[in-house]
Amino acid sequence: MPVREDLLEILCCPLTKAPLKMVPAEALARINERIAQGEVRYENGAVVKDRLEEALVTVDHQRIYAVRESIPVMLIDESIPTAQLGAEIVALFEAGGSK
Q1: What is the pLDDT confidence band of residue 3, given thresholds at 50, 70 and 90?
Q2: Burial of 94 (0-12, 13-18, 19+ CB in 10 A)
Q3: Which of these, 77, 52, 76, lies nearest to 66 by C-alpha position?
Q4: How far apart are CA 26 and CA 4, in angstroms?
Q5: In the 8-state DSSP scheme, what is residue 61?
Q6: 40 forms bridges with which residues in the sheet?
Q7: d(CA 89, CA 84)
Q8: Are 63 and 12 in contact (CB under 8 A)?
Q9: Which of 40, 41, 71, 83 is the most buried (most CB within 10 A)?
């Protein structure tokens, strides 16, 4: 179940205060491929081991937050910096439109 629209409207990145939007399905699939290969790390340096069912990305495309059981995990240490994902994946965030 996706994040409720009314909740999405008030959420922001706890680090930068940038608004958030849902990660588009195609980008999520590509990120999960990279996670399966052990190539994705959280902000704290730990390897991301669990695939993302859903995720939020800052509108400036700098940071991803996992959504688990419809609850956004808004912890800076457990955010995923997008710089490690490459321009091809980051470009897919535009496919999701605005919030």
Answers
A1: confident
A2: exposed
A3: 52
A4: 20
A5: S
A6: none
A7: 10
A8: no
A9: 40
3-class secondary-structure state, position 25: helix
E strand or H helix that includes residue 67: strand 63-68
Residue 97: alpha-carbon gap to chain centroid: 14
Phi, psi of 97 (to 5 degrees): 70, -160
User: Taking 70 as the threshold, does the pLDDT of residue 17 lie above it?
Assistant: yes
| Domain locations in the chain as residue ranges | 5-96
Element (H, E) at 26: helix 25-36
pLDDT digits (tens, 9 = 90+) for 24-74: 999 999 999 999 999 999 999 999 999 999 999 999 999 999 999 989 999
Task: Enter the pTM of the model.
Answer: 0.91
